[in-house]
Amino acid sequence: MSVQTTMSPEGWTPPACAALSRSLQEPLCGTAPRVRGWLLIEQPGPWGRDRLRQSRLDPVLGDALAARCADAGVRPVLIRTRERRDVAAGRHVYLVRPGRADGWAERLLVRDDRELLDLDLDLSPGVGERLDPTESLFLVCTHGKKDACCASFGRPVVTGLGHRDGRVWESTHVGGDRFAATMVCLPSGIYYGRVTAEAAEHIVAEHDHGRVVLEHYRGRCTDDPVLQFAEHTVRVERSLLGLDDVIPLSATPRPDGDTDVLVRHPAGTDLVRVRTTSAEPRLTACSAGVVDSPDRFEAAPPPVRRSGS
């Protein structure tokens, strides 16, 4: 596939990755990145491309924190409100272990940035104030220096949602620039893509009532992409929207290259045979000019082998 470009006085400019993804009708399901844990750090803008080293944090501290997070398998994310709150008296920090019944989020107030290096990134609970299960956090990526699509599509979503008592935050990169605007719900770990301001209102309301919105649903960061796709397939086949109605249990590779995924739901378990292929090369992040061949999933017929009513 040839990627069309437009010319500018400075040279060529690639097409916006989000617009290209939409034009190709790229499926959203099965695209949430795996994330073991989250470290959310309040840092008013501006944010540079390298979130920990170019966003007005001490770059030496940023280097050390990046190394610690990489070793622990924790994703560091900078967050801010539209009002750009003054953090001189301390910055809000959240530690999050994503999950279904076992997910949790804790809030701390860090008054000295050096305390960030002392945080328990093994994510043992009890470090901060535990958020009530009804207080889900909603991150919307607006990291324009990482990818212009995130700022263009993300900012209207944040503006439309408002602060909501500290539950809605702008964030740095969370994964999937081409699906902007992207939203992450924590601690459930649910990812949404191609979110508009109107859709965001619906997503937040449904999430608070314990339901997913399949039109924008990418999957959960706790599951591998093939499991995310199988979960989505069963949800569609059985019209199940409850947050924890559908749980992928296991994935078994087959000799023919497909994967059998066992999925639990309220009526029993189903088997989904997932076929993985590579899509044609395409632009997946416009600011970096990244061209990749993302995985493409499809269910081998029949889509679901039912073992429950």
TrEMBL record:
Name of the protein in its database record: Sucrase ferredoxin
PANTHER family linked to this entry: ACTIN PATCHES DISTAL PROTEIN 1 (PTHR31902), SLL1203 PROTEIN (PTHR31902:SF22)
InterPro entries named among the record's database cross-references: Aim32/Apd1-like, Thioredoxin-like_sf
Domain of life according to the entry: Bacteria
Residues that span the membrane, as ranges: none
